[in-house]
Design a protein that fits this description.
The structure holds two protein chains of two kinds.
Chain A: E1 4-7, E2 10-14, E3 19-25, E4 31-37, E5 43-49, E6 55-58, E7 61-66, E8 71-76, E9 85-94, E10 97-100, E11 104-109
Parallel strand pairs in A: 2-11
Antiparallel strand pairs in A: 1-3, 3-8, 4-5, 4-9, 6-7, 7-8, 9-10, 9-11
Chain B: E1 4-7, E2 10-13, E3 19-25, E4 31-37, E5 43-50, E6 53-57, E7 64-70, E8 73-78, E9 87-94, E10 104-105, E11 109-113
Parallel strand pairs in B: 2-11
Antiparallel strand pairs in B: 1-3, 3-8, 4-5, 4-9, 5-6, 7-8, 9-10, 9-11
Classes of the chains: A mainly beta, B mainly beta.
Chain lengths: 110, 114
């Protein structure tokens, strides 16, 4: 059974600081996604990572994938308050079935 | 135009009642899903349909019955509601064939069972 573990589960950081969220998964997979969820809202897709060594960047967020280590990272550069949200990684092993990590709730304080 | 829309957004009901949630997507995607998010924000897949065919049916009680009349619609009917069914239910769609398979979520339906 595919297991997806994220850490940390809660992250409180100051504006302007850098930090990394980690996503480990237990078995070989096709694809990995990162999603963002604002409080009380839906989830939206941030990144799709398809192959070993893939790196995607959007603004202050950068995601990478190491399929050999079964690890993805979401790096936050110079955090701002608007980045406060819950971030989920999701791994696809069987087409049509995304297994989600438990989410990392990020709070960025001034 | 909302890409994935669910109704209703809120349901408050008594234990033992039956309720339904409807979902429609206008993205032309081939696969639709129901996910359950509990109070700790854990997300778990319940069902997945590809072109009206059930392809994933996780260990969900029989009281939950999905129905897909066509590939743009996926409904969820819940019988004999229990306290533990209280959660946010998200509908989602994706394009699996010739797509990246990322999920597009509806706004969620918050179910409260009293």
């Amino acid at each position: 059974e595919l297991k997806v573990e994220q850490n940390p589960l809660f992250l409180s950081m100051q504006e302007g600081k850098n930090y990394t969220i980690y996503c480990n998964y237990s078995t070989t997979s096709d694809r990995l996604y990162w999603y963002r969820q604002d409080p009380g809202k839906s989830l939206e897709s941030l990144f799709v990572l398809l192959s070993n060594g893939a790196v995607k960047q959007e603004g202050r967020l950068m995601a990478s994938l190491d399929t050999k280590a079964r690890l993805s990272t979401l790096h936050i550069t110079a955090a701002v308050h608007d980045l406060s949200a819950t971030y989920f990684c999701a791994v696809v092993r069987t087409a049509g079935k995304s297994t989600f990590g438990d989410g990392t709730t990020l709070t960025v304080k001034p | 135009d909302t890409a994935v829309s669910q109704t209703p957004k809120y349901l408050v009901t008594q234990m033992g009642n039956d309720k339904s949630i409807k979902c429609e997507q206008n993205l032309g995607h081939d696969t639709m899903y129901w996910y359950k998010q509990d109070s700790k924000k854990f997300l778990k897949i319940m069902f997945s349909y590809n072109n009206k065919e059930l392809i994933i049916n996780e260990t969900v009680p029989n009281r939950f019955s999905p129905k897909s009349p066509d590939k743009a619609h996926l409904n969820l009917h819940i019988n004999s509601l229990e306290l533990g069914d209280s959660a946010v239910y998200f509908c989602a769609s994706s394009q699996e064939l010739r797509g990246f398979g990322e999920l597009f979520f509806g706004e969620g339906s918050r179910l409260t069972v009293l």
